[in-house]
Amino acid sequence: MSGILVIGIGHPYRGDDGVGPMVAERLAATGVNAVAHHGEGAELMELWQGLERVVVVDATSGGGAPGTVRAWDAVAEKLPAALFPKGSHLFGLAEAVEMSRLLGRLPGGMMVLGVEGRHFAMGAPMSPEVAAAAERLVAGLSSDSEGLFLP
């Protein structure tokens, strides 16, 4: 996965919202270029500016089954902003993607992987289904030699 940055968005102490940082930290430990980030949109735009390919992992909250993973090609389609919890940030991932699109600053390839969560309260444990999804994503992204996670 050389030339790719994986960004794991979320808060590790807010239950299922910690899925992004968990994936990023596990990948970084194996040598993959990955960082955990809290999700503030302007900082995300700076983080991916000038990069060719980015994979973003974030929790979603759409009422689906916990642990369900959905993928969006953020270059080709608009993200469903209502699915991505913003916390205290009114300018989060979906807004940062759209602003980058307007400014012509999206990476050449950007895949957003959303993991449906159940528990987002401070101090809540991560749901077993979300933890299992994180493990699958770590395994998949670690061995993505065929570019399955990017267009």
SS field, number of helical segments: 4
Secondary structure tally: strands:
5
Main sheet attributes: strand count, strand direction, barrel closure: 5 strands, mixed
For the record, the count of structural domains works out to: 1
**Fraction of residues in H or I helices:** 25-40%
Neighbour order of strands in the largest sheet? 2-1-3-5-4
CATH class: Alpha Beta
Strand content: 15-25%
Distance between the termini: 13 Å
Average pLDDT figure: 90
* CATH fold category name: Rossmann fold
**H/E series:** EHEHEEHEH
Kindly provide the radius of gyration, computed on alpha-carbon positions and rounded to a whole number of angstroms: 14 Å
Uncertain segments: none
CATH homologous superfamily caption: HybD-like
Name the CATH architecture: 3-Layer(aba) Sandwich
Shape: globular
Backbone structural class? alpha/beta
Observed structural traits:
151 residues, alpha/beta, Rossmann fold
Structural account:
It is a single chain. α1 packs parallel to α4 (128-142) and α2 (41-48) crosses α3. The chain has four helices and five strands; from the N terminus they run βαβαββαβα. It is globular and about 40 Å long. A five-stranded mixed beta sheet has the order 2-1-3-5-4. It has one domain (4-121, 134-142): 3-Layer(aba) Sandwich (Rossmann fold). The two termini are 13 Å apart. The chain has helices at residues 19-29, 41-48, 93-103, 128-142, and strands spanning 4-9, 34-37, 53-60, 69-73, 109-116. α1 links the parallel β1 and β2 (34-37). By secondary structure, the protein is an alpha/beta fold. The model has no long low-confidence stretch (mean pLDDT 90).
